[in-house]
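Course exercise 7: structure representation. Students receive a sequence record and must write out the corresponding structure in token form. The form below is the worked example handed out in class, using Serine hydrolase domain-containing protein (321 residues). Read each field label carefully; the graders check that inputs and outputs are placed in the correct fields and that the protein name is recorded exactly as given.

STUDENT ID: A-19
EXERCISE PROTEIN: Serine hydrolase domain-containing protein
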Amino acid sequence: MAGAGTVRGLDQWVTETSTTSLLVLDRGTVVHEWYAAGLEATTRFLGASMTKSALAHLVGRAVDEGALDLDDPVADHVPELGATGWRDARVLDVLTMTSGVDWVEDHRDPDTPASRLVGSFAEGRASRDVLLEVGSEAAPGTRWTYCTGDSQVLDWVRERATDRPFAADLALLWADLGCTEDAHVAVDGDGVALAGGGLAATSRDWSRLGLHAAAGAWADAAARPAYGFTAPGRLPSTITAHVGFGRHWWPLDDHGDRVAADGSRGQFVAVDRRTGATVVKTSLWPYDDAWADRQHRDLSYLGLHALLDHLDPDPEGEPRP
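STUDENT ANSWER:
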């Protein structure tokens, strides 16, 4: 893998990006599986914001059932949001993180709404009280800002529309995917799930979530950039230049042929939707230094592409060398 001015082998890339597990599948068949010392196939890895991509599939289920429409105003389902920054937002706006609310996603600053939201889970308080304090900054659909608040609102709306809490809906998805191990979900003092970041699962079950993004009309829409300003290379440079944003999934190209789930400190599921090649990488790199975080993420995406390329057959049907 070439990046940051040098060429790295697989072992160096794994070490430099603080990898804790690496799983590579070719059309559903495991071709490489590695775990750091003390970890194993049954270890549940916290996916952090990869949880958002699981939430996307739950929303897709609600839409397919007819319980939810993407043009529904969120306040129609959750009237409590009528006096907040989400008062004019549609389901589609929170699904694409273009709600326009006044939100700062910086967990290094304890006073940001993102820090206070996560803190409410750590301290057993009511997380939705934080959402009720959020105001508006831009018209919905006109600006993208990474916002776990949008994810929590999206799940609140989904819950009201289906009358199923996050864990119950996730259990249905887990059964559909054929997952082999129970997942763990973080909840607040009211039992509300951290649908934007609290799901822990084995690497193999995370791979099943990725494969679920490879086919179907809902998955196809989720994998594509939602707007021109959310295409790869168009997001704020503090994140990475390698991805765009769709419907709670991260497209790796303009057409959504490759897509990823992405979580803080290096949690990834990357899928080539044309070939079914899938890579799960969990990591534990430092978060405090924003530039180091950005470089680790950039190097990770370069490596993920290299692994997917290796499983992309050449015209003769053989994997690339």
